[in-house]
């Protein structure tokens, strides 16, 4: 990890047994492109703390709650923000999340088609940037004010940052389902595991968590 | 869990293979009573978030970071606050933690000897109460404003709350050391495990984490 840039972390990256981390048909009705099975055991309520679910505090929930810890900005791919392609239509789209996007930090959306920043009262702001991973991370790092930057996905975006050797931490969650189709997380990254120390635990929820820390 | 009272949680309760959770000789020099071996793998920096250590993000650190999540008040035994016994001496003692106690919430210290509240600028305040576990939990719950109450230890205090059936969640960390002496956590609590669903994971750090959730 270079001291010259912020730590870049990936959290709650769900992947199927056959390596898919999203479906391939993102539409307004299907934000995760038909890969809903991946998310069936994921409790998004606890991304900011285990207390946010009136439910048992499990290892799965504890690990999920790392998502928000010490994060000062996020970088996401355009597909995570919305299903549109090409020029942005004048449709008032402000993301999938309604009035309370869970991010509560600046978010940098990678796109070749700039548009105006979208801001919410809860601290979330979406900035649209046409930039390389390096440049996007530099901008996000400035916005993060000394905290870490989350690479928020989807899988294509995470893969680009892995290819550029910009990921310091990756929390992978292997879900025991077979999808058969979708977007693969690690295509073309043979040997990438050599750059990380990988800790693995299985949980009683049936998930396998891997914590990849850059060597 | 009763809706009439706050959720009571115990975190990072370290216990040796022979069942000890503290030493038995608390002095000004030995806040944990000579049970230092228990804490040799514990990273207190991450109780408020995995990012607080410039170090790998491990499962041990992730689980340790639950300590601060959604907690609005703590209850602790007198021995956790200081080594004095009997009437409080006029020694200006304000706890072990200097100017920045890590709690950042109201803390209720159980003692038969009342004294004046001690307040810090970082949100920590120590309130000294001569109360049953039930009554202390009621007071802490009011101070917690809808968040959970942490039962902060030491082990004698946690045992009292377990005896009174007031614990909703217990994060036990079994450390592979044999102490031979000290304060036992679970003495006299035969069968207590029947009241909980217990999830167990081992980590590459050599620790065994148990998450006890009230049935």
Largest sheet of chain A: 9 strands, mixed
How many distinct domains of chain A? 1
Helix content of chain A: 10-25%
The CATH architecture of chain A is 3-Layer(aba) Sandwich
Number of strands of chain A: 11
**Low-confidence stretches of chain A at least 5 residues in length (pLDDT < 50)?**
none
Order of secondary-structure elements of chain A: EEHEHEEEHEHEEEE
Mean pLDDT of chain A: 93
Instruction: Kindly estimate the percentage of residues of chain A that lie in beta strands according to DSSP.
Output: 25-35%
Oligomer: homodimer
Q: What's the tally of helices of chain A?
A: 4
Structure in words:
2 copies of one chain form a homodimer. Chain A is built from 4 helices and 11 strands. The first copy, chain A, is an alpha/beta fold. The first copy, chain A, has one domain (8-84, 100-208): Dihydrofolate Reductase, subunit A, CATH 3.40.430. Chain A starts with 7 loop residues before the first strand and ends with a strand. The model of chain A has no long low-confidence stretch (mean pLDDT 93). The interface between A and B is medium-sized, with 30 and 30 residues.
Write the layout of secondary structure elements.
Two copies of one chain form a homodimer.
Chain A: E1 8-16, E2 20-22, H1 59-64, E3 71-77, H2 78-81, E4 106-110, E5 118-119, E6 125-129, H3 133-144, E7 148-151, H4 155-163, E8 169-175, E9 183-184, E10 196-202, E11 208-214
Parallel strand pairs in A: 1-7, 1-8, 3-4, 3-7, 4-6
Antiparallel strand pairs in A: 2-9, 5-6, 8-11, 10-11
């Amino acid at each position: 990890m270079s001291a010259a840039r912020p730590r870049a972390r990936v959290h709650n990256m769900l992947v199927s047994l056959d390596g898919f981390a999203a479906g391939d048909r993102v539409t307004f009705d299907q934000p995760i492109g038909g890969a809903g099975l991946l998310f069936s055991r994921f409790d998004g309520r606890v991304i900011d703390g285990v207390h946010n679910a009136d439910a048992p505090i499990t290892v799965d929930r504890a690990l999920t709650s790392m998502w928000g810890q010490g994060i000062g900005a996020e970088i996401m791919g355009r597909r995570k923000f919305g299903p549109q392609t090409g020029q942005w239509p004048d449709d008032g789209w402000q993301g999938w999340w309604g009035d309370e996007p869970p991010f509560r930090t600046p978010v940098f959306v990678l796109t070749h088609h700039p548009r105006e920043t979208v801001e919410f009262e809860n601290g979330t702001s979406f900035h649209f940037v046409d930039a390389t991973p390096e440049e996007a991370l530099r901008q996000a790092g400035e916005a993060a004010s000394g905290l870490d930057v989350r690479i928020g996905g989807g899988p294509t975006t995470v893969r680009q940052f892995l290819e550029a050797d910009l990921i310091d931490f990756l929390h992978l969650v292997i879900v025991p389902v077979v999808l058969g189709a979708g977007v693969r997380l690690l295509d073309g990254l043979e040997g990438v595991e050599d750059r990380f120390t990988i800790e693995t635990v299985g949980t009683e929820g049936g998930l396998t968590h891997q914590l990849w820390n850059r060597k």
